[in-house]
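Q: I'm writing up a methods section and want to include an example of the input and output format. Could you take the sequence below and give the corresponding predicted structure tokens, formatted cleanly so I can copy it straight into the document?
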Amino acid sequence: MTQRIVLASNNKGKLKEFNELLSTIGFSAHPQGEFDVPEADEPFHTFVENALTKARHAARLTGLPALPTIRAYASMPWAVRPACIPPAMPASRSPMRATAKN
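A: Here is the clean output for your methods example:
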């Protein structure tokens, strides 16, 4: 049985890329529009912060784990790169609060 993950996008190309990767490990990505998730606001100045906001928005409204887009994920520093955004992540555990240890 495959586990569903929400992609914080409705882009068909990105959805295809995610499904090619995730299908090998028992997951399937679904666009946020499949769950009637409206577009999230983009209140921040960086692409990464807005992508994480969109993923949290999709997770909160669907109750499923959500992933930011590939471009956003690839641009995140390794120290803050989440595997996925769970539906209810406390602010204290936010990947944006993580810091790299020197």
